[in-house]
Amino acid sequence: MTRDRSPIPGSPERYSSIYSRAQSEAELLVEREVYGANVGVRGYTTIAQADALAARLDLRQGMRLLDIGAGRGWPGLYLAQKSGCEAVLTDLPPAAPRSALARARRQRLDGRCSFVVASATHLPFRPQTFDAVVHTDTL
Ligand SMILES: C[S@@+](CC[C@H](N)C(=O)[O-])C[C@H]1O[C@@H](n2cnc3c(N)ncnc32)[C@H](O)[C@@H]1O
Description:
The protein has about 140 residues and is α/β, with parallel strands linked by helices. It contains 5 helices and 4 strands, in the order αααβαβαββ. The site of S-adenosylmethionine has 21 residues, from helix 1.
């Protein structure tokens, strides 16, 4: 019997391997079919739900948003683009912020968005740094 050595689903190693490679054409197609656009989703939160978050948090220019466990940048980048706010995106495996930064550059959001490798359990920010915090399918 051979032992399955693939990373445990949901583990940082698993996410690291996912975020280290580009999405395949099939994945992009599925994302468009299910979510309506290619926004870098790696969970279950839809665009309509992200829009509801933006409205509930009253996100706008001048605000600073923290997205915990943002993966490829969802929904932090989308919310920054939609609302004009600044966003700081965090995740554990370094491949996640790398992928999110590449997406931000393509969308010309890198001037307003920054990326930090950090665990949700030990966030390296002072109190009152953010006006709003989101996490989608992270905790
Ligand atoms: C299901 S994915 C969701 C990613 C993104 N928020 C989305 O909705 O597409 C869960 C994310 O949580 C991250 N994560 C898991 N444990 C974490 C922790 N302790 N601190 C920060 N991020 C964590 C994973 O690396 C992964 O990117």
